[in-house]
Amino acid sequence: MTVANTLSWNEELVLGDARTDHTHQEFIELLNATSAASGAEQLTAYQQLLTHTIEHFAQEERWLLACGISPDFCHFSQHASVMEVMKEVERRALGGETAYIGSMIEALVEWFPMHASSMDAGLVAYLQEKGFDTASESFINGVPEATNATAPACGHDSSHSCA
Ligand SMILES: [Fe+2]
Ligand SMILES: [Fe+2]
């Protein structure tokens, strides 16, 4: 079985929030660049992907927090799990074990479309509903009064309590 190690930007990945879509397109470009690189250049490309992903996740988490979502919501923990593995792969690659980069890329190729179509899609719909503008990172009609905000849809089934 051939394992895919690249992703292509396609309609199914478009979530309808310009900033999110732009960030996701950059993610795919950096992922493909890492896949195409070899040797020392592959580690450099991977580190660029890692730096970008740190900011990508932080951006979404800032928006969740701005809406009053608790940091124990599952979207945060899924980002944290991915980030932990990505950093471990960098650590090993710096120690000479560069083969893990290829496995990480394969895992991200599988993970990203699922994450985008569930948690990130849920986040985009939620932000639009709350009137949160991602370009200015502010609420169009002022900050909603509700504290204890209900978490966005995350793709988990209803029996699973994420927040
Ligand atoms: Fe994302
Ligand atoms: Fe996300």
Q: Tell me the quaternary state.
A: single chain
Any idea what the CATH architecture is?
Answer: Up-down Bundle
Could you name the CATH topology?
Four Helix Bundle (Hemerythrin (Met), subunit A)
Major sheet: size, sense and barrel closure?
Answer: 2 strands, antiparallel
In spatial order, strands of the major sheet run 1-2
CATH superfamily: Hemerythrin-like
Binned, the helix content reads 55-70%
* Poorly predicted parts: none
**What is the CA-atom radius of gyration, in angstroms?**
17 Å
Q: How many structural units, i.e. domains?
A: 1
Please tell me about this protein's structure.
By secondary structure, this protein is mainly alpha-helical. The chain has a single domain, classed as Four Helix Bundle (Hemerythrin (Met), subunit A) (Up-down Bundle), CATH 1.20.120. The chain contains 4 helices and 2 strands, in the order H-H-H-H-E-E. It has a two-stranded antiparallel sheet. Helix 3 runs antiparallel to helix 4 (99-130). It is elongated, with a radius of gyration of 17 Å. The mean pLDDT is 92. Bound molecules: fe (ii) ion (2 copies). The site of one fe (ii) ion has 6 residues, from helix 3 and helix 4.
